[in-house]
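User: Here's a chain of 273 residues. Predict its fold as tokens.
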Amino acid sequence: MQKDTLQLIIDNAISAIGLANDGADSINTGAMIVPESFKAIDLEKYMPERRRFRGNFSTTSIEDFCVYANDHDAGSIFVDTDKRRMSARAYFDLGGRATPGHAEHQASLSLEPSPAYAAALAINGERLKQSQLAEFIEDWLPQLTILHNEDVQNPLQAIQAVRNIVINASAAASHSEHHFGASRSAMEEVEAKSSVHQLPTHITFTFVPHIGFEPIDVVFRVAVITDKESPRLTLRWMQQDTQQESIGENLKNMIAIELSQNGCPIYSGNFSA
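Assistant: Prediction complete.
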């Protein structure tokens, strides 16, 4: 190929690029075509302002999440009421099917369990030594109501009872004979009781699960496991799933009340743009 012909091709290509950039209006679009590899580059960083608002506000406060959502006119909010997550996300530029947005402006809420709620979750179902349960009662004493059956028990007596458990075992055997054979049975009964006071049967733990929530009453059933030389005690959270589901619904209702004037739709679940 002759030099003049090659130069003519280059000049025509550069001219075509110039016409394309003029048609693209790079000042407003923030992008243009350059000769290097003929690729489009983003010029937004050189513009006085961004093309659109982008950002992600995150908080652990329901109040601050709702204030931000109201101040920036949230378009849609998705609330995850799963007991392991308890979170929400607001989209401000999601748009709709007809005019979809970029979903680049968001606000996220992630709730942290209160120290008492975390303690309740940690102790639920665990096999505890006598000292561990006694220390739990001592640590959270102002928020506990201790019961023996239906009677309220003195907390100090409950602690002494837990620290002084005695295991009693008794055995019984029977034997009978008849024309065609004989039968034999044996039964062993193991009983755990305190040597000083009655052991608690239930413990009610009153606490606020998350900041901004109303207090709840969690009832633990106390059981003694006697399959080892040293006894173990367990606390089982009664109706745990029901109460945690209620906590999740409360989160959605609290957000809905704060955004009632906005008219923003609120959905249960997660959304990924």
